[in-house]
Amino acid sequence: MDHAEIVPMRLSHLDAVLNLGYRAYDVNAMPYTSWSLSSVAEHWDAQPEACWVAMDDEGLLGFVLGSLSYDEREDWGYLEWIALDERARGKGIASALVQRCCDALFAAGASRIITDVEADNKASADMMRRNGFTEGVTVTLFVRSDPTRPTPPAPHPPRDPARTRLRRAARTTGTS
After folding, report:
1. How many CA atoms are closer than 13 Å to the CA of 97, on its beta-carbon side?
2. β-strands 5-8, 112-114 pairing
3. How far apart are CA 175 and CA 9, in angstroms?
4. Residue 48 forms beta bridges with which residues?
5. Euclidean distance between CA atoms 20 and 62, whole angstroms
6. Which has the minimum average pLDDT: 1-5, 80-84, 124-128?
7. Of residues 158, 122, 116, the one with CA closest to residue 140
8. Which of 68, 67, 126 minimizes the C-alpha distance to 94?
């Protein structure tokens, strides 16, 4: 990887973004069970200027998806999804993606930007701190499994039927 370019997310990036998200997020655990084509589309439709990808000659290096409005706060932006391919880590690409997303959200009227990082993801927490984020509210998600049921093995990532339809449409229009 000699050169990385940060560009606005386009339809042609969608399949690679979805695939990287499925590799990066544990879709069987909260809060990442919502990763799907709908998750991407929701951000891209609401705030396309806050959705960015990092590319090099080999393809997608990473992405960030943000949107204006966090819960009931219409003046807060939400940097909800960010992921990097292994080959892009430690090169400042995540920070560049965060900066582009934050710039877009502030330009759209956000007074604050919220993000969340898993408690054991030290690298992401450190990167967010380097980019001006500070810890706010701390919440611990407590989970209790049913002791009468064995924990099933983790299945393969679920197939998203909407994603298949989108790929087919992109191929027929020549945008993939």
Report:
1. 30
2. unpaired
3. 13
4. none
5. 8
6. 1-5
7. 116
8. 126
Which has the closest alpha carbon to 33: 167, 123, 155?
Answer: 155
**8 A C-beta contact, residue 66 and residue 43:** yes
In 3-state terms the chain splits into helix, strand, coil percentages (rounded to 5) of 40, 20, 40
Cβ atoms of 77 and 110 within 8 Å: the answer is: yes
CA distance 35 to 81: 9
Q: Which of 53, 51, 66 is nearest to 13 (CA)?
A: 53
Render pLDDT for 107-139 as a digit per residue (tens, 0 to 9): 999 998 999 888 788 999 999 999 999 988 766
Of 19, 2, 4, nearest in space to 163 by CA: 19
Amino acid identity, position 145: S
Q: How many C-beta neighbours within 10 Å does residue 120 have?
A: 7
Highest-scoring range by mean pLDDT, 28-32, 58-62, 66-70, 149-153: 58-62
| Beta strands 59-70 and 51-56, pairing class | antiparallel
Beta strands in 85-155 (DSSP E): 112-114
